[in-house]
């Protein structure tokens, strides 16, 4: 049987350029170098590094070409300005000087934008496109043109939008990229317009650049591929200004795992590299100090989570009942939540995942299910606190060593003047622990009562101190569960160890300090269990 030859689909990443316009995102030079290498390793075809000449950081980044094994390093910039020649335009000169394999020019493809934003003529805009592409082509660069506002421009004046695209192609552009710059075009419109464009420009020279202002950037990108486009531009985790760009962390698995696309196309991302996608996504978030979107498709922590008992029971029989792909294919994992909706199936699944031994006939399992439901009714959230669930399960099944006991703790918050005459607030905590009969007292100051308590608790645990040296608290979240003076507080604490492992613990109490201390204690004890500390 002859296999049908697949068409090549090219992936263009603009995380370092368009993604850098995200509110709150600020890349350093080192960040850009690491991310470019990570994208190259993943199998991305084009890595757009930024806009040389627009700022010192990007100019420095393009002073030396990164060592990329697969991806083509791409510089972004504007076509020549109206009234200047390409050889006399500093922006074009900066692009030609950049140590890049490819140049991506951006030009208006909307008569309205040319008239209002550029205040020039259609003819001059077309000439600018032709001259800039020809200059870069003559310099031996692979050239592409981002047709900015293409879809809005096409709906307003199709002949001019198309003329802009054709001008780039006829001048030698390898790719003509159609941009939904304002992000408001619908998928059916994208498919109709791209189909029309490919009657004039071959589809294997057409790309799509979609913004996510109607939550359809991924859908619009796929619609363009159906219509003939063969390059997709996007960003990791959907970064980008306003509502972001097409999310490559959603597009890549869809292209690899959905038959409509996997049977027809091949991309540069191998199955082996696809399995690193969760790590890539989380690495970027860590670098930017952003909390990962737990509900993100494919790569989110909740992407393969099951909560209700009926669903959990079905997933345990056959994961396909509630999963559209195997989580391992993208580097994720299946998780059955333990919550007030949970039944015995959920609890057993979580015990298996955590590697906690049990006997199915053990009556303690029933007690564990009832205990979970009672605690969740009181405000505990074990679906968000995996480590606290494991400790509760181990305790109920009689499998947690007694490491130490906190005999007493005290926290004071004092507001006073410091030596500079400034009014400051200082928290001081004292913790007294019993470690195998040895009584230890530790005191510590912190920038708040919980921080002081955390530092004091972990300051000296005697023979267990070496096991918690690498433990750090990385996130602290508080939620008030009901109103009034008797409000109950839930505290979730996320911790990390020296190997990058993360876990979450929970505490609940009318007293925020008490709730925090419960979560802190669980975090420390979980680290000891995880490290195999002797009793």
TrEMBL record:
Known pathway: Amino-acid biosynthesis; L-isoleucine biosynthesis; 2-oxobutanoate from pyruvate: step 1/3
Catalytic activity line of the entry: pyruvate + acetyl-CoA + H2O = (3R)-citramalate + CoA + H(+)
Domain Pyruvate carboxyltransferase: 9-275
SUPFAM superfamilies: 2-isopropylmalate synthase LeuA, allosteric (dimerisation) domain, Aldolase
E.C. designation(s): 2.3.3.21
CDD domains, sorted: DRE_TIM_LeuA3
Signal peptide: none
NCBIfam families: citramal_synth (TIGR00977)
PANTHER family attached to this UniProt entry: (R)-CITRAMALATE SYNTHASE, ALPHA-IPM SYNTHASE/HOMOCITRATE SYNTHASE
The family this protein is said to belong to: Belongs to the alpha-IPM synthase/homocitrate synthase family.
Name of the protein described by the UniProt record: Citramalate synthase
Species of provenance: Bradyrhizobium diversitatis
């Amino acid at each position: 049987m002859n296999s049908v030859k697949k068409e090549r689909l090219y992936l263009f990443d603009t995380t370092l350029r368009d993604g850098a316009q995200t509110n709150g995102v600020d890349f350093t030079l080192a960040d850009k170098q690491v991310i470019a290498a990570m994208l190259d390793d993943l199998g991305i075809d084009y890595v757009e590094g930024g806009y040389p000449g627009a700022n010192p950081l990007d100019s420095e980044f393009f002073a030396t070409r990164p060592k990329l094994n697969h991806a083509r390093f791409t510089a972004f910039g504007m076509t020549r300005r109206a009234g200047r020649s390409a050889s006399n335009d500093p922006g074009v000169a900066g692009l030609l000087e950049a140590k890049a394999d490819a140049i991506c020019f951006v030009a208006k493809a909307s008569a309205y934008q040319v008239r209002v934003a550029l205040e020039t003529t259609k003819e001059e805009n077309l000439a600018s496109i032709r001259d800039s592409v020809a200059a870069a082509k003559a310099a031996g660069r692979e050239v592409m043109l981002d047709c900015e506002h293409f879809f809005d421009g096409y709906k307003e004046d199709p002949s001019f939008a198309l003329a802009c695209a054709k001008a780039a192609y006829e001048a030698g552009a390898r790719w003509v990229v159609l941009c939904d710059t304002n992000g408001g075009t619908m998928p059916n419109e994208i498919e109709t317009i791209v189909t029309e464009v490919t009657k004039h420009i071959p589809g294997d020279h057409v790309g799509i650049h979609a913004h996510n202002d109607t939550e359809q950037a991924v859908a619009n990108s796929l619609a363009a591929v159906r219509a003939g486009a063969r390059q997709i531009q996007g960003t990791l985790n959907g970064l980008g200004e306003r509502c972001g760009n097409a999310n490559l962390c959603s597009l890549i698995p869809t292209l690899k795992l959905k038959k409509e696309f996997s049977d027809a196309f091949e991309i540069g991302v191998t199955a082996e590299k696809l399995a690193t996608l969760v790590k890539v996504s989380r690495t970027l978030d860590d670098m930017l100090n952003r909390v990962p979107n737990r509900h993100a498709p494919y790569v989110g922590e909740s992407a393969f989570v099951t909560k209700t008992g009926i669903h959990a029971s079905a997933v345990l029989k056959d994961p396909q009942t509630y999963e559209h792909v195997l989580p391992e294919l993208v580097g994720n994992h299946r998780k059955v939540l333990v919550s007030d909706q949970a039944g015995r199936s959920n609890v057993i699944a979580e015990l298996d995942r955590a590697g906690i031994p049990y006997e199915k006939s053990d009556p303690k399992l029933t007690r564990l299910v009832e205990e979970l439901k009672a605690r969740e009714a009181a405000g505990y959230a074990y679906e968000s606190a995996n480590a606290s669930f494991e400790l509760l399960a181990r305790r109920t099944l009689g499998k947690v060593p007694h490491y130490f006991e906190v005999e007493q703790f005290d926290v004071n918050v004092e507001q006073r003047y410091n030596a500079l005459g400034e009014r400051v607030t200082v928290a001081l905590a004292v913790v007294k622990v019993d470690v195998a009969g040895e009584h230890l007292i530790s005191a510590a100051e912190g920038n708040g009562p919980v921080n002081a308590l955390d530092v004091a608790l972990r300051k000296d645990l005697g023979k267990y101190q070496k096991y918690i040296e690498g433990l750090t608290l990385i996130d602290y979240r508080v939620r008030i569960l009901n109103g009034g003076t008797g409000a109950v507080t839930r505290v979730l604490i996320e911790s990390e160890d020296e190997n990058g492992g993360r876990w979450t613990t929970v505490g609940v109490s009318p007293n925020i300090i008490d709730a925090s201390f419960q979560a802190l204690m669980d975090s420390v004890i979980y680290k000891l269990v995880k490290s195999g500390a002797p009793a």
